[in-house]
Fold these 2 entries.
Entry 1:
Amino acid sequence: MPQADSTGFADLDALLPRLGALGALDAAALEEAHVALLGRKAGVLMLAARSVATLPLEQRKAYGAAVNALKRRFEDAFAARRDALDVEHRRRTAAGLDLTMPGRGRWIGAVHPVSRVVDEILGIFRELGFSVALGPEVETEWYNFLALNFPPDHPAMEMHDTLYLDLPPSGEAPGGGELLLRTHTSPVQIRTLLASRPPVRVVMPGMVYRKDPFDASHAPGFAQIEGLAVDQGISFVDLKATLAHFARRFFASTTRVRFRPSFFPFTEPSAEMDVECQLCHGAGCAACKHTGWMEIMGCGMVHPNVLANCDVDPERYTGFAFGMGPHRIAMQRYGLCDIRLLYEGDVRFLRQFGPAAGSAR
Amino acid sequence: MNVSLRWLEAFLRRPLDSQDVVEKLAMLGAPVDMVQPLHLDLSPIVVARVLDVAAHPNPKMTRVRMTLVDDGSGEPVAVACGAANVTAGKLYPFARVGTRVPGGKKGPVEIGARSIGGVTSHGMLCSLDELGLGSDSDGIWELAVDAAPGTPLLDIIPLADERLVVDVTPNRADLLCHKGIARELSYAYATPFRLPPIPGAERLDVPPARRAGAEATVGGVRVAIEDTGGCPRFLGAVIRGVTVAPSPDWLRRRLEAAGVRAISNVVDATNYVLLELNQPMHAYDVSRLRGPGIVARRGRAGERVVTLDGTQRAVDEEMVVIADAGGVIGVAGVMGGAESEVRSDTRDVFLECASFAPARIRRARRALGMSTEASYRFERGVDRWAAADALRRGLELLLTLTGGTLAEAPVDLWPAPSHPPRIFLRLSRVAQVLGVELSQHAVEKYLVAIGATVVAKPEDGRLAVDVPGWRPDLVTEIDLVEEVARLHGYDAFPTELRPFRVGALADAPAHVAAGMVRSGLAGLGLLEVSTLPFVREGSNASVRVENPLSAEDAFLRERLLPGLVREAERNWAARTRDVRLFEIGTVFARGGAERPAETTHVAAVLTGAVEPPHWSAATPADSDVWELKGVAERLVALAYPSASIQVEGAAFVARAADGRIVGWAGPLSADAPPWAAPLFGVEVALDPAPRQAPQYHALPTTPSSDRVLALLLPAGATAASVIAALRRAGAPLLETVDVVSDYRGADLPAGTRSVAFRLQFRAADRTLAAGEVDAVEVRLLAALQDMGIRRRGGTAAATGSSGEA
Ligand SMILES: [Zn+2]
């Protein structure tokens, strides 16, 4: 059994900080504190005062005096704070201040919802050792198609409906040819690999263009984020692990993903990554066409021909690449039904993506 | 590719659940876009036997007869029937009262008990049209099967089907037919597959084709290949004595389920083989061939052909054509000619089954501006080595359906026979790319499943793999690695994060700079927009799109502001008055180089109140030139830190350190409603150079001494020139100069204004004495005197010194 002279006094000392804190409490919190400390039934100090009678005689006097002194100090502090609150309240009421009136506003500024999504995605890949690379929006056929292993005169070329520029072909080396608006950010892979040696780990955001008329789900230009990792020993397992990690960070830690075989000329094996539909969580709904899955990105192991086209030895180095569409992801994330909203400057739409939107008055 | 689930079931000889098939195909790389149920709405229709047929009691109702029908319910029901072919004792499809029939063009019909000429009819005997199965038959559908009355129609006639719309990637030519899809499912379900039998073809014995070089004769038709590059293999056969007629139901249903319209038994037979085996074929009417035979050769300049669609087309030397003595009778692999088309009176048919070079077919169909089922497949690659089997299948069908006979064994022109490629696969490469060690046994199993032959056992860790002819996409080792991964199942690979080396590259400075601009401008209460770079009009320097979506999108923008003005107008149209937008985007201009110059710009537009209204004050002011200048200065500081804002006429320009103009700010004209506030804009190039780190100056340890100078400025004197003069004359003690006020009043001398400046003096090493500051002030006033500027009213506005600004 602990000795009252040691434990009892220590408990009293532990209450001292609360004495100083009383001065910051509002009226409601002050009453709560009063009940806890000086409440008749269970107030800490009242219990301590009652316990004095149970102590051995030689300890009663000193401990009893200490309890009473502390009780008095708390009673004084409570009274002082009550007075102060009362004065303040009367002063405000006298001045006619209604503090529930709205504060002075500032115009809400906001980054675009697609920029938000891009920044968030890039941030996750930065954690995984990727840095950001950029490339031009006007490209040559070589960078956009041939270097990426699109076979000339093959139906794969029709996967992209290309907008060409009314300019003479470029004779630059390497990689001239017809000038066009890039149809994907993948040419930045080529530029990065030509400019630097492995290990390469880059994410490449940017706008891409297709000859696709505007409708609720298509646009002639949209953002894309490309990713590329090339080094010795990079495998399909690394591809899956990296992108699954991304999905769990971007969506939810419990989000399920699946990889399906697919085809892109510049990767092999190629895959499509689906994530569990964020609306129905796999049960199936209209948004996911009742599959329970949402297609998020295309990916795959960098095709040996692409590495060779960039003077990287495909026997020694392997890599993975991926590409995703922030416009589509923004539509899913924010529940937009019409992609055109993302291209219009409607203030009523854009300000919803500002800070503190929807916070309490 | 439209796939019939029933057809697949016939291949696999087991029932299939469409949802399960969809899942399995997705995980094998052939996603299904859509599942369309076919004829499931016929499930309430039953088989019924007509027991008795009698005239309608009303003699005027000559076309309607009253029948007694056994629909299996026990009690015969009275049914009126208007069809002439209704016969007692026969079986017909029957819709009971309360059911729905899908109907033909008129749409679905609800069947009720209804009175016809005073007699009640309880149900309906149905025609094909009423069941939604076609309109080409008169009367009700007499069922040529034996079934108990009351049996659901769908149980005895396999009408119900599900059409899977499979999204086949351009590399997988083999999935453009039912056999190819069945092969994948055969692996997925671990069950063998085989060609479904053709009803009635069991006793046929089609002789194997006779191999020949570049020329042979079959059934009196001379066949030759001249263009062996464009047409490596050509098989043909002649069938005599055909009867061109509609195809039987089973074939029509198969084609319909695959989305192809039935035409006649001859055409349907070729379409069936196309859908089943991916081999396009073409049938010619032998009697319409001119001269002794046909040849596959290059087109000739000036030659023309009327194709099956009735269009006259010019061929060129790069196209492979089929020609007879009279000229071109078909564009090989794309579309046959109308001249030799099989018609209802055709008796003898020449059946072509050939291989064409994919690139040549692609070029031809693009030159002709068309795409057909045949060209789509030849472009992607048709199995050259399976052509003889496909021809045999086609002949079995034709002979069964048309009643014709084979003139003689088919011919097989194949001047340079070859084998599908052999690829060497290293198990070490499989492990390197896939990150998982797979056993040789497993790898072989997967390769066999796709139809490859693993010919040699490895001594040096390599497998020699003969790929199947139907997989033209398998060319190099990595193609086999992908197949191994695909059949192993992508989901079977682990997803553990393994150690990696980080890249050595820093973030692109332009990306970092754009990020700072973005957050800086959002912090100023501006909303980011993102518009597309296409514009309707351009200048001499504009880049033009060669194939724009529309005339509205013919050029690439040179500036961002016009797009932002449009967005301001959009907001006005939505009755929003206060608009503050910015954009970071690419602009394009033709420069000296081959590539157009591509620059990232930052632009902003402002109109309306500078801050939201608040109840505590009057209506806030609208954005004016000072709001613009302030925002422009911040924008330039963010986007092009080394540039500065200068006055240029009624607007501003941003000038880089080297004097180049890199930005503009000023008032903008727009299509504004009368209630709109003035519109201002700023546009600056984004300097892609890395940003300098901020420079720290040690905080002062001595107090400053502040003075306010109210100066009378004559017309033409600018604040900037005064500040510059003050700074020159006040150095080194003058630390800062701020404008405090600008007063114009009648009490001032004519043509002058009074501008007050707050001056802050400081010496780094001592507290300034009042006399020292007085002396500098005298110097300043003297310097200003040369500019015609003097102190207003001569009053000195001195303040005490303090440590704060
Ligand atoms: Zn869903």
Entry 2:
Amino acid sequence: MALAKVKEDALSARVAGLSLPEAAGWLGAARTDARARLQAMGLPVRRDEYWRYTDPSSLVAQDAPAASRFDPGDEPEAFDGIDRLKIVFVDGVFDPAASDDLTLAGVEIERLETAASAQIHWAQGIFGVLEARGQTPVARPFAALGTAYAKDGILIRATGRAARPVALIYSHSSDTSDAILHHCVKLEAGSNLTLLESGPAAARFTKVLEVDVADGAEFHHIRVQGRDHERRAATHLFARVGAGASFKSFTLTANGRLTRNEAVIELAGPAARAHLAGAAVGDGDFHHDDTVFVTHTAPDCESRQVFKKVLMNGATGVFQGKILVRQGAQKTDGYQISQSLLLDEDSQFLAKPELEIYADDVKCSHGSTSGAIDETALFYLQSRGVPRSAAQGLLVLAFLAEAIEEVADEVIADDIRSRLEGWLARHAAKGGK
Amino acid sequence: MLEIKNLHVKLEEEDKVILRGVDLKIGPGEVHAIMGPNGSGKSTLSYVLAGRDGYSVTDGSATLEGAELLEMEPEERAAAGLFLAFQYPVEIPGVGNMTFLRTAVNAQRKARGEPELSAGDFLKVVREKAKTLKIDADMLKRPVNVGFSGGEKKRNEILQMAMLEPRMCILDETDSGLDVDAMKLVSDGVNALRDAGRSFLVITHYQRLLDHIKPDVVHIMTAGRIIRTGGPELALEVEANGYADILGEVG
Ligand SMILES: Nc1ncnc2c1ncn2[C@@H]1O[C@H](COP(=O)(O)OP(=O)(O)OP(=O)(O)O)[C@@H](O)[C@H]1O
Ligand SMILES: [Mg+2]
């Protein structure tokens, strides 16, 4: 069968059970456009080059494969100690009772649904717009699916310095939930916002986050993806970073049967900065894919990609990362590193780092490595009395350090470190030597 | 303190025998030195005692204060009081020296059922001991041994020993790579730890070190066996005449 037909069929199957969200006005138009894009692309199948390392079939299937919920015991939820404005979604549906009042100094927050009735809305220039721009040169059909079919989502506009971080908390309630969300964030010039995301969201989660960081603004994004072992997620982060603006995103992933995190970032104004980092730890039936595309359009910009994965008992890690430097983007400083630590021979890491450069005065480096734990260092630590599992934990945290360093807030960074320590202690105890 | 009987060791991966029946008995408070040609098995002996992977013990035993060492995990041997200053200290990028020291000290205290040291108490002790070894604050902050000079690495080994207060200390060529002043520092560090309840096994090629750290007993090892044991004068003999005479005598 021709590939196009297979992809079209995949799309028909996936959307058969979905109802189209109602919306007139600008939102309806954006959704209609997205549906047309989606129709033209179809949904990915294994034969797609961009899905060579990750099997999309469970993301495409009509019904979400069931995923039981994880019981964290008495462990505090992510970002527990951070004073934050909470916005809660349960299985992808906004839960006003569990959420805080959506008012915060320096920020406007609104549900997607209510914005639809506005004649003119700031989100018009972003919703589906950054996603559509991100569809070339590589198609990202799940992102278009998110624009077309997300019934819920949040719109956040920072006009000054946000008084507190805004936290999107995704809880997972039904074992077969299939959630689609689409959020937009706009940082007006000179504003400052920290966005936190946490939780598994659903058995299957399709999410789009579009972020427009205007000149001189600063955006921090820290995400802790839920620990449910069987959950699946396809997420997209689209960002446009303006002159002198700063964009920083860090993701911690522990567990999950399938995670595909795509990030599509454009450094659009001179002297913009974008840092993307990820730390992923997986044990057993775990497949984690970071797919990143950073485009340098303007000169004097800096981008960093730091992705680290710790894999054991047959877990799989994937990294596809590209830096594209356009013709005018002189003095680009681009850095990309993807590394995996394989704690046994059953685990694997597949990496495809790419550079494509059309400017002549640039500094770009990339590297990808895959290695085992350093047995000599392990013995050295043990010979000083550190038990093997703790020694392994120290070495694993040391391996992840470069990614965690991208979290600017020390309290959050410590929280992430201690979560990882806990995870490592639990998993080293049952696996390992 | 340490008693090694008829220890035979081969490499796990290949059929290469390295130790061919080592016998050694070190009493409490004693300092023993082992000398011997390159490749005679001195480091192997120290690694086997510390519990490194890759060797198989085909015969013999080693006990520390009566407890069978060879059946313990390396960390259990450390908690039981064994310490090895490595011939080649290991670099650990990403793990701060201070974190490393604190983790080690507290892990051993925990294994012995003692309370952990508070951050403040630990810091006080480590600063004081580092000062006597001329280890500056920067070296304590840097990742373990990363970018340390040869001599700095050796001093860092002695700092670890001073912090962990082991009962049986094995020093594998701690003098190699040290300048004259550093040799004095390290020896002073070792001598400060000498007491009736603590023993040392000093592996070295040079009499020089033994001028500073005076041994009670000197052993000569060759081809995986201790072929002669004597007093400090044996080291002087090696220094003056090399190993040829001793080997000739035996062979
Ligand atoms: N892992 C190994 N693989 C192969 N050969 C080994 C291994 N470990 C030790 N050997 C060999 O065993 C012999 C003894 O080595 P060892 O390091 O114990 O000697 P040494 O007495 O400490 O020497 P030096 O004085 O040079 O430090 C050498 O021939 C060495 O090459
Ligand atoms: Mg040696």
